[in-house]
Amino acid sequence: AKTAGRRTHYFFNDELRAQTERQNTIHNRMRDGLKRHEFSLVYQPIVDFSSGKVTKCEALLRWKDEDGNVISPAEFIPVAERTGLIHELGQFVLEQACIDWVTVHKSGYPIEVSINRSERELNDMEVAKQWLSCIKQHGIPTESITFEITESLLMSNKQRQLQILHYLRSQGVQLAIDDFGTGYSSINYLQRYPVDYIKIDRSFLNQAPDDRVQVALLDALLRVARALDIDVIAEGVETKRQWELLQQQQCDFAQGYFISEPLTLDKLLDFLRKWQF
Ligand code: C2E
Ligand code: CA
Ligand code: CA
Ligand code: CA
């Protein structure tokens, strides 16, 4: 038993070392990739049910490495969060989104942009202040920017992060809780932390309208949100039936493949031209 234990011990060390090495490799490739402009943003339109118009879009990061492989953010964001490169990536995302916002506005579409922020990006007040000055330098009203943060952060009681979120919001930036319904999702936390939107995760809706429990939960959530004056954005809307259910239940916004996949800036402008007029 002793030798087996020791072997397991070695095994874990080897695993850990291999994992660290993999992470370091990805980290270095990302760092170099940033310099080589391998990162870009795509935008997914968000429709306002009350007007039927696209009034927002979410900026999503893409990485096409030097070999031309497109790597999913679901793969590289967690690594960037662990190694700290998320700060540089996040800076790039905000800068690029601001530049693109100006282009979209000049093209005649007054839409807002939603930007994902990792928990780790939110632990420095100076950084938050730099974000605000970046937004202002581009002549963008802070109200046009929404930061999306995951629900686990709001429920974690991390005072420094929450203080920064309060500060950003006091400066006009809007806040959305991302992936709502995937974690602890205690509805009662919503009243503690003022946010402007909740984004209900795809998994919350994937069986609706066939699953009566999902429909009932959606209905309950929409009622609570309405009472708290929080707007609800349904994510991952893929079918006409989901769209109709959401509309009927008076959900505020929808986002998903049923409307559009995430688009490059050019394609977004084409899309807006066709959708809005
Ligand atoms: P997320 O913030 O929940 O973004 C929504 C994800 O769902 C996106 O995946 C989007 O392409 C995908 N999606 C949109 N509509 C549909 C649909 O109808 N069906 C399905 N099955 N999927 C849909 P993506 O772009 O691969 O991003 C994955 C995650 O990576 C994001 O999830 C977000 O957590 C993270 N991420 C992306 N960009 C950034 C960023 O700039 N900063 C940070 N910190 N995280 C980011
Ligand atoms: Ca998001
Ligand atoms: Ca989400
Ligand atoms: Ca409202």
UniProtKB/TrEMBL annotation:
GO molecular function: catalytic activity
Keyword Transmembrane helix among record annotations: yes
Any one biological process term the GO annotation gives: signal transduction
Keyword Thylakoid among UniProt keywords: no
Location(s), subcellular: Membrane
GO cellular-component term (any): membrane
Domain EAL: 23-276
Highest taxon listed in the record's lineage: Bacteria
Keyword entries, A-Z: Membrane, Transmembrane, Transmembrane helix
Protein name: Bifunctional diguanylate cyclase/phosphodiesterase
Parent sequence residues shown: 435 to 711 of 711
